[in-house]
Write a structure and sequence with these properties.
This protein has 4 helices and 2 strands. It has 106 residues and is mainly alpha-helical. Helix 2 (43-52) links the parallel strand 1 and strand 2 (57-58). The termini are far apart.
């Protein structure tokens, strides 16, 4: 989460249901360190709720671990959805480059 709203607890309770259709959910680090801990989105809370509902959720510690989590799980035919309101440390291009290198054509 990167936006001021997405990085706060505002929608925390809604995220597990929103991600329910996903085979796997990877919750990237919150992008706003200036948000007070009591207001900051708790990715572990969301991940636990997704798992409790029978889903799979990962909470990587940084952007590199986020990319590695995607690359470990991806298979031919998968759809990867990256939701960000900004460049997120170039993650889109980094993932595309890594996927190209993997050559997952089926």
């Amino acid at each position: 989460p990167r936006s001021a709203t997405a990085s706060r607890k505002t929608h925390e309770a809604d995220y597990p249901a929103a991600f329910a259709p996903a085979t796997r959910t990877i919750l990237a680090p919150v992008g706003r360190a200036e948000i007070a801990p009591e207001e900051r989105l708790d990715r572990e809370v969301i991940a636990r709720a997704i798992r409790a509902a029978g889903g799979e959720a990962h909470v990587p510690q940084d952007e590199d671990e986020t990319i590695q989590a995607i690359l470990r799980e991806v298979a031919p035919g998968d759809t990867i959805v990256l939701m960000s309101n900004g460049p997120f440390y170039g993650i889109h291009d980094r993932i595309l480059a890594a996927l190209t290198a993997l050559d997952l054509r089926s």
